[in-house]
Queue: 4 jobs
Job 1
Amino acid sequence: MGAKTGFRGSFTALVTPFKNGCVDEAAFRGLVEWQIGEGTNGLVPVGTTGESPTLSHDEHKQVVEWCIDQARRRVPVIAGAGSNSTREAVDLAQHAERAGADAVLVVTPYYNKPTQEGLYQHFKAINDQIGIPIIIYNIPGRSVIDMSVDTMKRLYELENIAGVKDATANMVRVSQQRAELGPEFTQLSGEDATALGFMAHGGHGCISVTSNVAPRLCAEFQGACLRGDYAAALALQDKLMPLHQNLFIETNPSPAKYALSVLGKCADTVRLPMVTLSDKSKTAVREAMVHAGLIN
């Protein structure tokens, strides 16, 4: 059995605000403060939504430090520490641990397409170099490879492997993983639109893009699911569904950053190869924000 965590509810996959080509520390800290005030249960800096592929290693580490410092232990911080280079992932994970992160989120290596044995050895190497929980991030849509339930089960026997952020959008997986690894294995949805089903299948929470923009509603939604009040959860899902869809109308995080700019939280600036939203997409995002009651 791997590590256990008490991670439950709505975790925000934080965007990384930019200003004049640099990371915007003031906007980022403000975002963390607002998230906690709105009831978000945990924070995930420098994941995909945090544009980690285009941050330098120094910037990546700085954002993790700012997040931990600003959160002041009020909510857990799961620091993004993935890479398709095992050595690099180990370095980022060790830094996150030193900085005081509660756990690390490690994506399955993208682009170089390791085998299941390669996946096992990658995560084992990170496991052996740190002493905080590791959340496996399984997102075949972005990394091409899909970690099998068997590989996950093997990894869960290691000391620090604690759970999965599952972005397969496959409800069956949640039940399969629960059956094979047990209810203590932390299962966090990585896909906002299907989080309702995910939770009903035995999930523990969601690492959410939408909660960047609608933190209170997402936290309420997760709270309803965890209480088993699926009628209340469904009503919130209906409110949030256009946002879940339109925040992916163009590649994440451009729509989320645009929505945050509408709320006055940060600029909509992204780094190439990401680009800011087209006018048509901006209209769609605004309409979804109106539907959710975030703006008039």
Job 2
Amino acid sequence: MFSGILKHLLILNDTFPYKRVTVTGGTGFLGRFVTGKLKAFDGVEVFVPRSHDYNLIEKNDVERMLDDSQPDLVIHLAAVVGGIGHNQKNPGKFFYDNLMMGAQLIEQSRLRGVKKFLATGTVCAYPKFTPVPFKEDDLWNGYPEETNAPYGLAKKMMLVQSQAYRDQYGFNSIFVLPANLYGPGDKLDLETSHVVPALVRKCVEARRRDAGFIEVWGSGSASREFLYVEDCADGIVKAAALYDERDPVNLGNGREVVIKDLVELIARLAGFDGTIRWQSDKPDGQPRRQLDTTRAFERFGFQAQTSLEQGLRQTIDWYETTFPEGGA
């Protein structure tokens, strides 16, 4: 099986099988890396719809966007997303906006004869107590962790729709499940950001102020798997070019880290040597997260290349350079 994948990957180094690609969320954290990789291929035109031009929650705007871009391939990265606290404050919005974007985009893409649709799900779609490492076949074996269940379920509905449309209409829609992402360019708002950018900002700013401590949500006992954003972009481009099956696919590096250890690593790399105060009255979220990445490697040759320490160093360096005076 894998010898055939290697042959296709050699072709992918020079060409990409779709010439007109629409990337929703293409100006976002992950989207910028995906569009950059696509534009590196000769002859590929990338269209990135902007929110001030197209509201992808509305059917008419989705229709107009697809009519304007005429894509062969749609890569759907746009999402309403945030950390645990933001999910708790906006469960209805996170559910409705993500559900409607996915449902409208897949349906209107089918009606317009789009050749392929790539939907990005979320590791939050997995059941709260999924055995580690998470295998794609376990997606339906329980309810997601409560603090982000509305978001996770809304995104998982794209898998249901993709498989139903493949069965009834022969529509080539695929579904990938990235691990928690991090890297340069991530959101740094402490109210809405995910754990890594929030910790990077806290540690760097505490060091700059010579603060004696930082506060971190939860107990530190939960674990997560983190995927460097450029590695994720590489996996998405490979899946878009080479994968044409109904099965969902995890995108990760297959390694988990306990949050306590993550915080200590970021503090060390950022040069912060103060105290870490755990806010144990705040939720930890899902107890453990680690993905089985076998399917992505076997089906389209994806394997993450960036170690956690290397990726964190690059993220911290980006923050230090981009915000030398703080105030991100």
Job 3
Amino acid sequence: MREGERVTPLELFFDLVFVLALTQCTTLIVHQPTWEGMLKGVLVLGMLWWSWTGYAWLTSVVDPEEGAVRLAMFAAMAAFLVAALCVPGAFGSEALLFACAYAAVRAAHIVLFLLASHDDEALRHSVLGLAGSTAIGAGLLFAAAFTKGTLQLGLWGLALVLDMGGPYLFGAEGWRLVPGHFAERHGLIVIIALGESIVAIGVGARATIGAGVVAAAVLGVVVAAALWWVYFDVVAIVAGRRLAQAAEGRERNEIARDSYSYLHFPMVAGIALIAVGMKRTIGHVGDPLKLVPAAALLGGAATYLLAHVAFRLRNMHTLSRRRLVCALVLLALLPAGAALPAIATLGILAALLSALIAYEALRYAEVRDRVRHQLAREPVAE
């Protein structure tokens, strides 16, 4: 087990490759603004996310900056970069190359885990189970590379479900992790995703910066700031403490798997979809978004909030009705969002998220203050 809970510089360096992967996924959807294009983008993001989160588990066991592990991490970065470069053609001309790169990323991950588990039978058993689900997922991607259309999408979906479902099926007893490091690593990846939403504003802007573009940029920052607030104001603190206070072994591992590996994916996917909507908005502020880009913008925000609802239900066994209601309102506004000018739809999203934050900050001011300022060793109440 590694010592220390801080994320290392090499891990941050590794995460930068995920920035390109995320950008490529949003670009794929922007260039194919259809339901099929959105599905493709989410499927690719899901496979890349599962690769990334696997390394978050790995670096809780091994120090990535020590010895040969450092070189293996660099090799994995190279393979991850190739996979990211292949995203635009992952369902076409680069399908086979993407499958090869993905398999290389996962193979390096499994090999490093096997080396780390040489003296830990329980961990080795879990790693071997993961190797099985990984092999199935990679094999299905290779098969998908030689197909087209609905069959190809079906194979991708099956690969994602079986690959991500492996750790759920073969148990969580054998894994090991450092709670503070694990929570911080996922918090940083949320920031990276939020950074993509800011980048989307700049990428989508035209050469001439008029009043509409300025307004859209300001509203985009309001939305990004609201998404940051929703996660980091209280949720990230509660999540980290809940993980640290859980009993070591199965209980802690299951919380880490469900709350971070699984439920952080819809958070990141929701932010990526919002970035798609922002790109379309900033480039055509006065035109209607149409249904698919509106679904990306409003539906992405709803997905993000619903992931938070599921997170609280999983860890606190209580329902966040305010976030659930806000998500449902956003989904109900999809028809209007598709018909209104893009700037108006973005304004509605910014207003709803701001209202949610203001309500939570005022209604739960005392609890919020206690959570944010209590010592880490104190029990968490929310």
Job 4
Amino acid sequence: MAYLEWGDPRNRDVLICVHGLTRSARDFDEVARSLCDHYRVVCPDVAGRGDSDRLADPMLYAVPQYAADMVTLIARLDVELVDWVGTSMGGLIGMALASMSGSPLRKLVLNDAGPVVSHASLERIGAYVGLTPAFATFDEAVKYVRTISAPFGPHSEEQWRFLASNWVRQGKDGTWRPHYDPRIAEPFKATMPKGDMELWNLYDAIRCPTLVLRGAQSDLLAKQTVAEMARRGPKAKVIEIAGVGHAPTLLNPDQIKHIRDFLLEGSS
């Protein structure tokens, strides 16, 4: 598993940032820049994405394997406790780790992720995950990313190009393709529930302070779900991001400030 590191490698305060289903570690560049003065920031490419190896058995592309990989990563970092920022799938992995007895998570940020994942959002994601379109130019790739990622909300042209650059790589034939193992779609589609996916058993076991960022127009994380998250389990603090669906990209300073304020609250 490949990962990027920011800040002082001797710093015992570690923040792990984990991306969404088809994304990569580079999504957290701006978050890392903002927080590497306080943390050793570690941003992994989850197995099958970015620079990480692909799994021989595609059915292992699931949260239990990812959580086990993250336990190994934390051991490699040689720290007892970490703070966690997870977007979408990265949030579900964080929930799994935070729910464990003796969890290594000290603080948890769930970016448009929670214990109920709507069936509508699973169907929307299932419509494009695993597809490997080829683009003759990088500009074509940017246009495609703007289309499938429209719920990210308004971004500058530079930001869209940054988001596209994290998602495609140019091959030897000159074409640009998504840089992840398309077989991650196999377990995603094989385990698709008939209704919403519910993980309240994980959430209710979480004991660490938790912040939930919700895109106000999110089709994945419902308003009633975050209201319930504020009442039960770790009784999360909830912040809605206006004008954004699934999921806030954390490229905007205002979005990053919510995370920084939560993580650094009470620190010297």
